[in-house]
User: Which sequence fits this backbone?
């Protein structure tokens, strides 16, 4: 029964796809896409294009997480910093990263550092702003408890601030993940010669439509896989949060 | 810029509404024609021809729609948005091989065939150790689009000069961004077409290869094409107007330079200095075959292609 | 041990200032259990926060062993009213109680001893591995009390700790406090709005006026030291004392 529920909707979509695809050059049938998938990706493209792209995604994401949390905590703890920086942060977060790419290219060149920087430039915002919010909203009674019992400095950070802001920080990290996948593709649309996103765009330009669709499929599976991994991580880190019923199911 | 991922979705919708594309015209005056054309130096003839009324003479009410590149004009033509469009030889060969229903109707633009006086070149920084095409081996060269006419013809230049093109690392950069990348040493050499060739030279860059001239004699770089849905009579008339425009452009370079300022943003002083391409009225079929062979050897095409399917 | 000397608090707002507490003066001797009662809004919690060093006073000062209190002093423990929010939800009961001892750099074996003892003394020895949200309200407050006890404080402050629990649990917790106080001989200041509770628990009861607050009476509770929920509360003297306090509060409310 559970299998039916999990696979039911995707199977239905594939059937609809089969029915609809027929004449159009731009919508090949599922079996053609499946064949193209096997031929294209289960080859040296896996190590040559897919893995480097995913590697850059993870590097950019990790950097964004470090930056976002590292800056978010001090900003969240200081009302004065918050008041001063909030308008500036909102200004920068509103700039779509693709627009910044030419600027980033000037600063960081055209290789891996540029691509990682593009990913960071978009992913850092949800992490940063959610961290600030989570830290700002820490419980006052717990804060008083810390003061009374001498929980200060690094100890306070480890035992109070970070776990307390944890749910909000994880929400920011979740948002950053989906943004990261999009930016991974976008970063490869400029000055690239390899990578998952680049290859999909190349197929589109070469009119290799079945291969292009197979690439899009792979992107979707990648996103799904990463999101499932993230959920697992979240459940582990925030087990207390889910257990307490504070989280919505 | 690159709407590459949005395009498939848009095309899906557009393809669903494709239908017979001959615009209503019999006996009701001129035919409305939408042509997808890149706003570059290469397409001066169609703009000049429109300005001179050559299309009106053929009862064609021509609208020129700027597109970003060959892929966009091909997809626009196939989806029915354009009755005629402009794309480079390699893009057309690739599309034909994938089964798209396109046919060339007229020549688009050709190389001058003269190294040193062509509208496309590979350039390096003044102090670069690269002196000629064979020195490009193993270096990083920028092209505007990978697996297209740029890298194919550059490899031909290198081979011609006695070098080994296999180790060249091609990187994709739009033409406008290439000179800056060269300045900042992001790449060892850049391939650009006018007006960026003259722009780079005026900044001190040194040309080391004239790839269009090297690849073949009088290379047909790009062509005007249509799909089989277009009404044959309209195609004949468009072709006639196009040939007249090409011949006129080839023989009136001053008027070409004038019309450039109407549809491009190139500065007037640059327009004066750029090398203009040639615009023969006939497609050089042998050069198209050469490009097909080179592309096959480079892995851009994956099977032999009969050029006559593309160029009737 | 604990001197409250002409303590006052005025809140400055743009435009107007509010004198919440005018002047409070009283003492708590070492080992005493003193209760503070007063009408709603008289600033009982404000007083407690100033004594704890969590809130700066506007006038007067608090002295612990002669030393003025300017911030939370190291040997003082607080049990808050909102027990749910004063425990760390991501830690187990054991970890919650142990945390202040870790901060105090108490060596591990001694920590284990203190935590085990204090959990036993509040009757939660079995709940050590549970998380706070798995416990009932009364049990959570007991964890907070265990934490305060394990800390081996000089002074214990309690801010209406049983206001948010049901009557039955409240009775149990009151007796628990009495027992702990007797065993540990720790100086305790107990703030409550419940007059009966104040008379039942305290050796002395400080009665506050309404805002701007002053001390209206420092009442000695001359009930037998062995308090019992049934027996003590049915004593005639109990009724007299609570009636007296009640009348004072009514009068103070104007």
Assistant:
């Amino acid at each position: 029964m559970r299998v039916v529920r999990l696979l039911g909707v995707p199977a239905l979509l594939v059937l609809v796809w089969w029915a609809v695809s027929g004449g159009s050059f731009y919508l090949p049938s599922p079996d053609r896409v499946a064949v193209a998938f096997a031929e294209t990706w289960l080859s040296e493209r896996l190590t040559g294009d897919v893995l480097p792209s995913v590697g850059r995604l993870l590097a950019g994401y990790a950097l964004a997480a470090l930056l976002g949390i590292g800056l978010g905590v001090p900003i969240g703890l200081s009302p004065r910093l918050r008041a001063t920086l909030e308008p500036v942060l909102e200004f920068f977060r509103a700039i779509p990263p693709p627009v910044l790419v030419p600027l980033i290219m000037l600063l960081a060149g055209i290789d891996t550092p540029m691509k990682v920087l593009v990913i960071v430039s978009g992913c850092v915002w949800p992490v940063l702003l959610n961290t600030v919010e989570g830290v700002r909203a820490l419980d006052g009674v717990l804060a008083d408890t810390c003061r009374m019992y001498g929980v200060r400095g690094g100890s306070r950070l480890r035992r109070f601030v970070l776990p307390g802001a944890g749910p909000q920080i994880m929400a920011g990290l979740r948002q950053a993940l989906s943004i990261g996948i999009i930016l991974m593709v976008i970063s490869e649309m400029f000055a690239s010669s390899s990578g998952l996103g680049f290859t999909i765009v190349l197929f589109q330009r070469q009119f290799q439509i079945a291969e292009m669709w197979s690439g899009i499929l792979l992107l979707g599976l990648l996103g799904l896989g990463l999101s499932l991994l993230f959920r697992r991580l979240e459940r582990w880190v925030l087990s207390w949060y889910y257990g307490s019923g504070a989280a919505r199911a | 810029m690159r709407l590459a991922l949005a395009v498939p979705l848009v095309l899906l919708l557009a393809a669903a509404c494709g239908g017979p594309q001959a615009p209503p015209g019999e006996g009701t005056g001129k035919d409305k024609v939408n042509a997808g054309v890149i706003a570059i130096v290469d397409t001066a003839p169609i703009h000049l021809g429109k300005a001179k009324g050559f299309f009106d003479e053929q009862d064609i009410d021509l609208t020129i729609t700027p597109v970003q590149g060959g892929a966009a004009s091909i997809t626009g033509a196939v989806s029915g948005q354009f009755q005629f469009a402009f794309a480079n030889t390699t893009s057309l060969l690739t599309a034909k091989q994938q089964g798209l229903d396109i046919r060339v109707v007229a020549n688009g633009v050709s190389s001058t065939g003269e190294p040193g006086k062509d509208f496309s070149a590979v350039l390096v920084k003044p102090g670069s150790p690269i002196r000629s095409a064979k020195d490009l081996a193993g270096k990083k060269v920028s092209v505007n689009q990978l697996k297209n006419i740029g890298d194919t013809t550059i490899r031909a230049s290198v081979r011609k000069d006695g070098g080994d093109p296999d180790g060249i690392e091609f990187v994709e950069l739009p033409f406008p961004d290439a000179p800056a990348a060269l300045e900042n040493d992001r790449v060892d050499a850049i391939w650009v077409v006018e007006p960026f060739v003259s722009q780079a030279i005026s900044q001190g860059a040194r040309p080391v290869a004239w790839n269009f001239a090297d690849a073949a004699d009088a290379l047909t770089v790009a062509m005007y094409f249509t799909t089989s849905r277009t009404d044959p009579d309209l195609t004949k008339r468009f072709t006639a107007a196009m040939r007249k425009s090409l011949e006129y452009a080839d023989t009136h370079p001053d008027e070409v330079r004038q019309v450039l300022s109407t549809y491009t943003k190139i500065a007037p002083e640059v327009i004066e200095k750029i090398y203009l391409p040639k615009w023969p009225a006939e497609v050089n079929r042998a050069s198209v075959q050469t490009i097909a062979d080179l592309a096959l050897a480079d892995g851009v095409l994956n099977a032999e292609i009969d050029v006559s399917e593309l160029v009737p | 041990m604990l001197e409250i000397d002409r303590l006052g608090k005025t809140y400055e707002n743009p435009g107007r200032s509010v004198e919440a507490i005018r002047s409070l003066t009283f003492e708590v001797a070492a080992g005493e259990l003193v209760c503070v009662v007063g009408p709603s809004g008289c600033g009982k919690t404000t007083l407690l926060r100033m004594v704890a060093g969590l809130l700066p006073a506007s006038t007067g000062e608090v002295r612990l062993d002669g030393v003025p209190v300017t911030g939370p002093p190291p040997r003082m423990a607080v049990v808050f009213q909102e027990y749910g929010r004063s425990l760390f939800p991501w830690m187990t009961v054991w970890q919650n109680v142990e945390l202040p001892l870790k901060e105090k750099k108490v060596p591990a074996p001694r920590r284990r001893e203190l935590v085990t003892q204090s959990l036993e003394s509040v009757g939660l020895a079995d709940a050590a591995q549970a998380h706070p949200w798995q416990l009932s309200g009364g049990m959570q407050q007991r964890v907070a009390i265990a934490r305060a006890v394990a800390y081996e404080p000089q002074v214990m402050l309690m801010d209406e700790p049983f206001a948010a629990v049901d009557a039955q649990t409240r009775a149990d917790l009151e007796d628990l406090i009495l027992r702990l106080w007797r065993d540990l001989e720790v100086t305790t200041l107990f703030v409550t709005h419940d007059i009966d509770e104040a008379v039942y628990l305290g050796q002395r009861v400080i009665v506050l006026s309404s805002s701007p607050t002053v001390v209206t009476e420092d009442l000695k509770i001359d009930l037998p030291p062995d308090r019992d929920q049934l027996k003590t509360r049915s004593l005639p003297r109990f009724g007299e004392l609570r009636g007296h306090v009640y009348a004072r509060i009514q009068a103070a409310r104007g």
